[in-house]
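quick one before i forget lol
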Amino acid sequence: MRVEHFLGSTNVTKEGELDAVLAQRGENGSNEFWMGDARDPEMTIMLSEDDVCVHYFPGNGHPGFRSVPAATTDVALAAAKAFFRNPERLPRALSWFEL
């Protein structure tokens, strides 16, 4: 799975590699991660220190789902791992608002 972020872009094949990428932060403690392959679905995690928002885009022109309320870092990382294992399924670690 491809993970693009403010500090670069990485192909991950194992959860441990995903953990290492998602741990990366800029000098101000923030980063944004776009996860997916060349096709839908995609997931994005935006974080700034303890403030986190997650979006899930199932594809086919759907505007997606936004995490509600704002996620914690630990819950967002659990959702990222669930997405890594099965990108076709909306991660259950979060509550979602359909846009």
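fyi The CA atoms of residues 30 and 48 lie 4 Å apart.
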